[in-house]
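[Automated response] Your request has been received and processed.

Submitted sequence:
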Amino acid sequence: MNYIDYSDHFNVKGFRAFMSNRDRDYANLGHRRFFVKNIELDPNRLVVPRQTHSNHVATVSGPCILPDTDGAITQEKDVVLSIQVADCIPLFLMNTSTQAFGLIHSGWRGTQLNIGPVALRQLVNGQPESIKAVIGPSIGQCCFEVGPEVANVFSSNRSIPGKGDRRMLDLKSIVKDQLLETGLSEHHILVDDQCTYCKQDRYFSYRREGEQAGRMVAVAGWSETSF
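Generated structure:
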């Protein structure tokens, strides 16, 4: 199997949420479309953000390419959302009451800019108790060594000492904190503890491989039988 299936966490019939492994470089649009078809979603309904580590979240109603965007939200069942990652967090979101859903790319820059809460403000609709979230595989605190210029923009209780003045940053916990502060229930948040840097056989890692790193893809959408 070349993907992880998080669909059961959302427990909404017909809704599907996946993240690929490193079997292909999904920065390639052809490969991304192949993956979407392989998980029985429609590659012709694909939304592709051109990611820039921003906090820009777009609301979409149809397939498109989004410039300077790191997250997308939709209420349409015939739209398939996607983002690419290689250490940054893929954040899946869904309002189980309205069935609106989102997919967010949250690296440390986007996290500093509160991209998760920005997206949630568009999803919550006065019902934070209806939101479910998945924080997917990304670089773990075990491997995410940063300088003080990065560590100091986050709470000191979310990093531990590294070498010299450097710190080991727990980005997943920071994103989870932001979700909780927005009003989400802790039992509605699934955190995948896998570290993309550690698991070289399974995931690409920009921190490990540099500019040559490929990209995984995260995808969310509805099976056609649920339309």
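Summary generated for your ticket: Residues 52 and 101 are 21 Å apart (CA to CA). The two ends are 26 Å apart (CA to CA).
If you did not submit this request, please reply to this message.
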